UniProtKB/TrEMBL annotation:
Source species of the chain: Marinobacter shengliensis
Signal peptide: none
Protein name: cysteine-S-conjugate beta-lyase
Enzyme type, top EC level: lyase
Gene Ontology MF terms: cysteine-S-conjugate beta-lyase activity
InterPro entries given in the database record: Aminotransferase_I/II_large, C-S_lyase_PatB-like, Class-II_PLP-Dep_Aminotrans, PyrdxlP-dep_Trfase, PyrdxlP-dep_Trfase_major, PyrdxlP-dep_Trfase_small
Listed PANTHER family: PROTEIN MALY (PTHR43525:SF1)
Pfam family, one: Aminotran_1_2
Gene3D superfamilies assigned: Aspartate Aminotransferase, domain 1, Type I PLP-dependent aspartate aminotransferase-like (Major domain)
Taxonomic placement: Bacteria, Pseudomonadati, Pseudomonadota, Gammaproteobacteria, Pseudomonadales
Enzyme nomenclature, EC number: 4.4.1.13
Keywords (A to Z) from UniProt: Lyase, Pyridoxal phosphate
Requisite cofactors: pyridoxal 5'-phosphate
All copies of domain Aminotransferase class I/classII large, residue ranges: 37-386
């Protein structure tokens, strides 16, 4: 039976980074774009309807955050994740990436250390460096048999014990390796942070995107003690495919830490958001559950298709099935190419545009990140192109 997600949506000439930047990024316009982490699916009808209704009012002035927006978010996390948020804990933010930068500035001084766990989403690196803080790397460890990753908690303890360590940026679920961290891992991470007085910013933007056959996501804050120094970043943008609307939320139970984060945003005049962001945010959380459930089933089938195709048809490439996100982490080290050669091979020979693993830190060398948030027919073309290119290699 055909799915609504099988229907292609033309994104060319819509100022889409994913599609319209292909020439600039890859040097050719005909690569299949499976890189930028947005999906090629129409957003939930309720979101489009809310945006359309708001557009029908012809004044687009400065806008307040309505009480109904906060309540939609509170209800979503209580029902979907069993996490009970108090209204006063919420600080609206202009996106998760700006929140990473703001956390570095709010909770670490210039020259102090921020721990990250590569391979990880590139803004984790840039948010630390561009704010004048120092990166402390606690690399994930890959199981050579299964390809799955785990935290190196013993090394994390050493990183946290450094006199300059102030903040830990956690990616949960993890981009790009697709891990959904277990309660045991998260509890130990909290214990390390507690012992060394670290502030933890937990980026949980992919929290709704865990596969039906995997363990559910656990919100880190749901395991925390009352006095833990914890900031949780969430947004409906990945869940309902509307990252261009650029609105997220921070949940910060401690009033002083909330005040510190708010001060950073206000110093840069960042809190303003447009009325369309507000309409999309609320409608996603209020009406998007059924759409999301159907999406997750479709993404799981996409994941399984790619996993099977890689093992059967793409010699020299391995992949561990992710537990969450719509991103797959392809291990291409057996192809024997350096990182420049690997990117060149996929772009020039296969005509496929992916994210080079090296952009996620040195532990990503030899890997490529594949976005499976697209119709199955697109993934079939991707596999066929890589298969043909490998035959020539």
């Amino acid at each position: 039976m055909a799915s609504v997600f099988d229907q292609p949506v033309r994104r060319d000439n819509t100022c889409s980074v994913k599609f319209d930047a292909r020439q600039a990024v890859f040097g050719r316009e005909d690569v299949i774009p499976v890189w930028v982490a947005d999906m090629d699916f129409a957003a939930p009808e309720a979101v489009t309807r809310a945006l359309t209704e708001r557009a029908q009012h012809p004044v687009y002035g400065y806008t307040l955050f309505p009480d109904s927006l906060y309540q939609a978010m509170i209800d979503w996390f209580a029902e979907r994740h069993g996490w009970h948020i108090r209204r006063e804990w919420i600080l609206m933010a202009p996106g998760v990436v700006p929140s990473l930068n703001a956390a570095c500035m709010a909770y670490a001084g210039p020259g102090e250390g921020v721990i990250i766990q590569p391979p990880v989403y590139p803004p984790f690196f840039s948010s630390v460096r561009q704010s004048g803080r120092n990166v402390i790397e606690n690399p994930l460890v890959q199981d050579p048999q299964t390809g799955q990753y785990r935290m190196d908690l013993e090394h994390l303890e050493q990183c946290a014990a450094r006199p300059d360590a102030r903040v830990l940026l956690l990616c949960s679920p993890h981009n790009p390796v697709g891990r959904v961290w277990t309660d045991a891992e998260l509890k130990e991470l909290l214990a390390v942070a507690r012992r060394h007085n670290l502030v933890v910013l937990s980026d949980e933007i992919h929290c709704d995107l865990t596969y039906p056959d995997a363990a559910p996501h656990t919100v880190l804050a749901s395991l925390a003690q009352e006095d833990d120094a914890l900031v949780t970043a969430v947004a409906p943008s990945k869940s309902f495919n509307m990252p261009g609307l650029g609105l997220s939320a921070l949940v910060i139970p401690d009033p002083e830490r909330r005040k510190a984060m708010k001060a950073v945003f206000e110093s840069m005049h960042l809190p303003q958001c447009n009325p369309f962001s507000i309409a999309g945010f609320e409608s996603g959380y209020r009406h998007g559950a059924a759409w999301l459930d159907e999406l997750l089933s479709y993404l799981q089938a996409n994941r399984d298709f790619v996993s099977n195709a890689v093992s059967r048809r793409l010699p020299g490439i391995d992949v561990a099935a992710p537990e969450g996100t719509y991103l797959m982490w392809l291990d291409c080290r057996s192809l024997g190419l350096d990182d420049a050669g690997l990117k060149r091979f996929f772009v020039k020979e296969a005509g496929v545009g992916m994210n080079p693993g090296l952009s996620f830190g040195q532990p990503g060398s030899g890997f490529m990140r594949l976005n499976i948030g697209c119709p199955r027919s697109v993934l079939e073309q991707v596999i066929a192109r890589i298969e043909a290119a490998l035959a020539g290699l």
